[in-house]
Amino acid sequence: MFNQLREAQLDPILSLSIAYREDARADKMDLGIGVYRNSQGETPIMRAVQQAQQQQLDTQTTKAYVGLAGNEVFNQSMMDLLLTDTSAHTRATAVQTPGASGALRMLADLMRLAQPDTTVWISNPSYVNHKPVMEAAGLKVRFYPYFDPATKQVDSSAMLAELAKAGPQDVVLLHGCCHNPTGADISFADWMAITELANKNGFLPFVDIAYQGFGDGLEQDAAGLKHMADNTEEMIIATSCSKNFGLYRERTGAAIVISDSLKVAQKAKGRILNLARSTYTMPPDHGAALVATILSDQELTRTWKQELSEMHGRLLSLRTGLTQAVRAQGSDDFDFIEQHKGMFSVTGLSPEQVGRLRDEFAIYAVGDGRINIAGLQEQQLDYLATALLSVSS
Ligand SMILES: Cc1ncc(COP(=O)(O)O)c(C=O)c1O
Description:
binds pyridoxal-5'-phosphate, 13 strands
């Protein structure tokens, strides 16, 4: 049976990690894979997570099944983090999923059930897995203009002009904050304009938020999403705890459905549970149990928010530091790095220039020119600045 299979295509980011591991050069730099690293180059277990984990170890008495929707305290906490103070808070339901990846797939499957002829509009470029997941669920995909390579910012007018063509059969997928891969976020005015278009044209907004707290702060990063949730009848959200709780390998996320009534949102939740039953059945418990413990405890919540804000502060200082390091070498070509949000920036380097970064400087970036700012060390900034200027001149 299996010798008829075509060879699998390697994921470009995961294969980059393999090449990096095999590189023997001492000053090599991994700016490929999207994980946060501290000033020692480690991806630490956050303090609040460690404490919650210890509590779990001391108090957990069973490993019996949790249930199809996962941990309901966690589900409520995810809705609280994103929807508190909006009218959507009381007409939304959530299902715990294996990461935001699981949420993306469950929501895609739900759309396929509800409206088989759906087209999902995705930003150009977008998170590398958006298109494959939507297509695997049998949905059509279409791209809308997003990033302006000249300014390295969002081309709002081109984006809004294209989205004005989306209609009732369409779903518009947006990044809640910290756009992956570009680092260029839409403005609050853009959120307002897209909300208006959704109401006028009847398309469904779909927000993927995987970096809440890494852009402008926990509250601010959800401001656009909240405006949209408050002012539309229906909206769906995929959310992740991989980055802001550092729970990458625990596969912790949620799918949220907002509708015009709680009754409809509950019906959608029921159908997601059917879908989950016929795929993975239940999400893993550990990560969600830790998040639920943290967000149900004032002291642990304070500790978590403090550490998240330290991580955010470090990201900002790395962005400023890199921009200044380039400026110190006489160029303002990379000033946009300071304006970008979150872990990533698209540098504008071509695949060939990215190849030179790797061959001449042992710096590993993604082929589309994306670098992971959160993977940098302070002492590497001058070297990276030299390398960027050398390959781009
Ligand atoms: C925009 C976006 N969505 C979803 C995900 C997947 O996150 P998770 O690890 O929770 O599956 C990522 C991870 O990189 C991402 O960048």
